Amino acid sequence: MEKKNEVRKFLLRTAKIAVGSSAAIWVAETIGLEYGASAGIYPGRL
Questions:
Q1: Please, what's the largest Cα pairwise distance for the chain?
Q2: pLDDT in the model for residue 45
Q3: How far apart (Å, rounded) are the C-alpha atoms in residues 23 and 39?
Q4: How open is the CA angle 22-17-1, to the nearest 5 degrees?
Q5: Quick count: other Cβ atoms within 10 Å of Cβ 31?
Q6: Which of 15, 37, 34 is nearest to 26 (CA)?
Q7: Total-model pTM
Q8: Which pLDDT tens digit goes with each residue over 1-46?
Q9: Alpha carbon distance 24, 39 (integer Å)
C-alpha cells in the first residue's frame, strides 16, 4: 500500500510540473519572449 501512495504522489508531482511548465511556455510565447521554451524549465529537484 505504501508503494502505491509513493507512485501516486510521484505522478501527481509530475503532472503539476507538466501543467506548470506548459503554462509558463504558453505565457512566455503569448507575451512575445524570444526564448519562450526556456520559461518551462523546472530548476528544482524531483
A1: 47
A2: 59
A3: 9
A4: 145
A5: 9
A6: 37
A7: 0.70
A8: 789 999 999 999 999 989 998 998 899 888 988 887 787 776 665 5
A9: 6
